[in-house]
Design brief:
By secondary structure, the protein is mostly helical. The chain is about 45% helix and about 5% strand. The protein has a single domain (about 25-145), classed as Glycoprotein, Type 4 Pilin (2-Layer Sandwich), CATH 3.30.700.10. It starts with 18 loop residues before the first helix and ends with a helix.
């Protein structure tokens, strides 16, 4: 005769994940998310820099159009704003609006330029002269050199 109760030895523990297993999964997912964010940031920086170079080319084209119609380049005091405002010869202006760089800073315009009739400069992510990586500066001279 057996005195043991078969149902008394059954485990009442539910199936599922332990706290240690859940923490391990969260740590792994966090590491993967950090890696993706790091890689994505470099692509975003590169795309903003390429956008600034394209915008500088457009500004230079507008400056050359201004020169062709007015027989002069805008002065530093007139700045790039004159390209968006109308004149007798071009009532609608050459540009729709004064462009901002991808970091929402104004492009710098100097006439005469350091090594040409003018300089169009993007000051990068920090909006100040100098810098590397996301803060690297670009000018129309850099863009022209890259196209050659």
């Amino acid at each position: 005769m057996s005195l043991s109760k078969p149902h008394a030895f059954r485990s009442t523990r539910r199936g599922g994940f332990s706290l240690v297993e859940l923490i391990a999964v969260i740590v792994i997912l966090s590491m993967l998310a950090g890696l993706v964010a790091f890689k994505t940031r470099s692509y975003l920086i590169t795309s903003k820099q390429n956008g600034a170079k394209v915008e500088i080319r457009k500004i230079c084209e507008a400056l050359e159009t201004f020169y062709a119609t007015e027989d002069r380049y805008p002065t530093s005091e007139e700045g790039l704003e004159i390209l968006a405002s109308g004149s007798e010869r071009m009532p609608e202006g050459i540009l729709d609006k004064v462009p901002l760089d991808p970091w929402r800073h104004a492009y710098q315009y100097n006439q005469p330029g350091s090594s040409g009739p003018y300089d169009v400069i993007c000051l990068g992510g920090d909006g100040r002269e100098g810098g590397t990586a996301a803060d690297q500066d670009f000018s129309n001279h850099d863009v022209e050199t890259a196209n050659r």
